[in-house]
Amino acid sequence: MTTLHNFFFNVYPYVCLSVFLMGSLARFDRDQYTWKSDSSQLLRKGQLRWGSNLFHIGILFLFFGHAVGLLTPHFFYEGFMSAAVKQRLAIYAGGTAGVICFVGLSLLLHRRIFDPRIRLTSHKTDLFILVILWVQLVLGLITLPYSYGHSDGQAMLVLADWAQRIVTFRPDAAGLVALEWPYKVHLVLGMTIFLLFPFSRLVHVWSGFGTLAYFFRPYQVVRSRKIGLPPTRSDPQSHVPR
What we know:
Elements: H1 2-30, H2 48-71, H3 83-114, H4 116-121, H5 124-149, H6 154-167, H7 181-196, H8 204-210
Subcellular location: Cell membrane
Domain NarG-like: 6-225
Organism: Hydrogenophaga palleronii
């Protein structure tokens, strides 16, 4: 178990992150026509509106909540918030978002499996990744009672310390040994989702974050041209051959 523990929490994270980054880049470079969400909205809209909206609202909150909660050093907030208060906040806010996301994903999964038209046009990887996400959400909800039992916030501090050591290339998973099994399985499956990311429809998430660049792009300059007058030297289009 010591060898497995060391592999899954000290080595496996870097394997998953390497495949996640390099695999996404390779797919964008070689298979851009497959870089899409494969929406099935045209086949049937039933359950899609509620399922998709609830799922995306919940998953975005969970993603940023996990990122901020795990990667923010304790000294940033210890002056105005204790670890116990932060953990209770994570339980209530994350639990609410988890339930919302679970309901939405359950609707999407039911639609994919039990609608004959959608099931026939769905790739096996679509169903596979939805099932993995569903199991991951269930595991996340299972951890809530355990987190509530750690009222002093020590479990959150252990998880945050491990995550911060991973991103700063100082891996040390010794503190995770004493944690309950749902936390460990939840971490391993979460890293596995990053491993499978470049080979599934999840790559369209990159495009969603890429749209933020539109807020920072320069304005497009459009110059009008007077009709009926010959172009002048100052006209930027005068060099264009007719």
